[in-house]
Specification:
Distance between the termini: 29 Å
Low-confidence stretches: none
Strand content: 15-25%
CATH superfamily: Spore Coat Polysaccharide Biosynthesis Protein SpsA, Chain A
Number of domains: 1
Largest sheet: 7 strands, mixed
Radius of gyration: 16 Å
CATH topology: Spore Coat Polysaccharide Biosynthesis Protein SpsA, Chain A
Oligomer: single chain
Number of strands: 9
Length: 196
């Protein structure tokens, strides 16, 4: 079973406010993403840290009941701590055979994009499977269980992409929508104006 990890613990200092609850398509980003991803029937692990309570308050109760919410107390140390938090939770509380890591702010990534990523991964489930746009390897990405210990040993603000660089073999699926992350209010305004 693949578990989907929504990475939402960071402060997003460039955004200037709590990005996780900024409005995308008339909803807080965190709510929008959960509602979009739940129909995929992949168990969701939401990793929170910065301003956890305000973000929790923006998630309707019926959505909270359908996902796992995990607090990363070391969110300020960088992305690696959230990856490690997800791995620890998965090992202790689930039978996850792989983790699909997705930053919360990839609002343009669709259900179809995720299904394609999962389908590609399942061809060789012993290998990492990452997304790609314009020859750039990126998230969302799926890591099989044999990489969990390596993920746990990462540190700082570097994500798990370094594991892909060091892997002898891995899979790629083209995902143009992975290019659009919400780094600034201006980018969010631009993405809100685009048609879905």
């Amino acid at each position: 079973m693949i578990h989907l990890v929504l990475l939402a613990a960071g402060q997003a200092s460039r955004f200037g406010q709590i990005k996780q609850i900024a409005t995308y398509q008339q909803k807080p980003i965190v709510q929008y993403q959960i509602e979009k991803l739940l129909p995929l029937k992949l168990p969701i692990i939401l990793i929170l840290g910065y301003q956890q309570q305000q973000i929790l308050n923006a998630i309707p109760a019926q959505l909270k009941a359908q996902i796992n919410i995990v607090y990363n107390s070391k969110w300020h140390t960088g992305m690696a701590s959230s990856l490690g938090t997800a791995v620890k939770f998965a090992q202790l509380n689930t039978r996850a055979q792989a983790l699909l890591f997705m930053p919360l702010d990839l609002v343009r990534v669709t259900q179809t994009d995720i299904r394609k990523l999962v389908e590609t991964y399942q061809k060789h489930p012993e290998l990492i499977c990452c997304s790609c746009f314009k020859d750039i390897k990126t998230s969302p990405a799926i890591f099989p269980k044999r990489y969990f210990s390596q993920i746990s040993n990462l540190s700082g603000d570097k994500g798990a992409m370094r594991l892909i660089k060091n892997a002898q073999d891995y899979q790629i699926t083209t995902m143009p929508n992975a290019e659009f992350d919400v780094d600034t209010p201006e980018m969010l305004a631009y993405l809100n104006e685009l048609k879905s």
